[in-house]
Amino acid sequence: EKAISEHPDAKAVFIINPTYYGAVCDLKAVVDYCHEKNMLVLIDEAHGTHFHFNDKFPLSGMQAGADMSAVSLHKTGGSLTQSSALLIKKNRIDGRYVRKVINMMQTTSPSYLLMGSLDVARKMLALDGERILNHIIEVANYAREKINQIPGCYSIGKESEGLPGIFKFDPTKLSVTTRDMGLNGMELYDILRDEYNIQMETGDVYNSLAILSVGDDYDAIEKLIEALTDVSSRFHGERLDYKKIDLHYPEVIISPRDAFYASKEMVALEDTLGRISGESLMSYPPGIPVVSYGERINVSVIEQIKLFKASHGIVTGMEDPEANFIKVIKE
Are strands 68-71 and 85-88 parallel, antiparallel or unpaired? Predict the structure, then answer.
């Protein structure tokens, strides 16, 4: 409500459903309010394809009445990588216009292999999705119960519902924190990959994330539980507590286009305070920029980049892969 009142000229609201870690807002209430204000609701449902096919999950964007929803079937629905679908409600959106815009932007030589996999995945979910997803929920709950019995490990679950920012929780998002044994999320991510041949989805300052999808089963989870048990027996460091950062969004000074084409120079990270960024810096995944083209670099930006580096995170988007130097607009 605050965002809409502060931006009366805005035409649409963009919502992520769910977040990378499974948090879901009261989507129906948000959609209803936006429609009352005559605004469209666009949903990034990259990690929520499965919501529609089992009522034990939170509402999907379409179920909540959203106007458009981009769903990545390849993430949780079983189709091939790079395949996704754009869903629309035609009472507010002109489907013919959407198709026209897509035709302007996309290739005229689509992959029929990807398109075929989308159709197969759609059929599987439509006919057998409820049973398959019931099984995945059981596997996820079993994994969470076992992980929370391992010393130094914790996996958040439905007990988080009702906390600030979490109206509902997606149980297929299995995040594991080992901060009590002194390991950050990226360190755990690397250990599981390099020493146990287990590829997690991502790692961050405190958590490592696994996403369960239609292809997972108890055998895969048992391997993860065994690996975490072994990690717990090997690492007994002090509890990990990084310096808390006061987050402040950087101010937009010039347009991204103008910043992209402007003359730039490389400046040491510590000396960029107050300068206008000439590139986009992010920790990936999920790839949300800490600062982007045309934004003024503030203390929060510098501290976040330092934290990503200290926690062995992947900082990407800039020319210097080590993020020791940042490209800024020449003054």
Answer: antiparallel
Q: Which domain holds residue 19?
A: 2-113
User: Which residues does residue 154 pair with via DSSP β-bridges, in sequence order?
Assistant: 177
Answer for the pair 132, 106: CB distance below 8 angstroms, yes or no. no
* Cα separations in angstroms, 311 against 156, 185, 246, 283, 331: 21, 8, 18, 11, 32
Domain boundary among 65, 82, 113: 113
Cβ count near 275 (within 10 Å): 18
Kindly state whether residues 35 and 99 are assigned to the same domain.
yes
With CA atoms as reference, report the closest residue to 53 among 141, 133, 119. Answer: 133
Residue 242 lies in a domain: no
Burial (Cβ within 10 Å: 0-12, 13-18, ≥19) of residue 255: exposed
Residue 188 lies in a domain: yes
> pLDDT 10s digit of each residue in the chain, 331 long?
899 999 989 999 999 999 999 999 999 999 999 999 999 999 999 999 999 999 999 999 999 999 999 999 999 999 999 999 999 998 899 999 999 999 888 888 889 999 999 999 999 999 999 999 999 999 999 999 999 999 999 999 999 999 999 999 999 999 999 888 889 899 999 999 999 999 999 988 889 999 999 989 999 999 999 999 999 999 877 787 777 777 788 999 999 999 999 999 999 999 999 999 999 998 877 778 999 999 999 999 999 898 888 888 778 888 998 899 999 999 8
Same domain flag for 224 and 270: no
Helices 218-234 and 185-196: crossing angle in degrees, nearest 10, is: 110
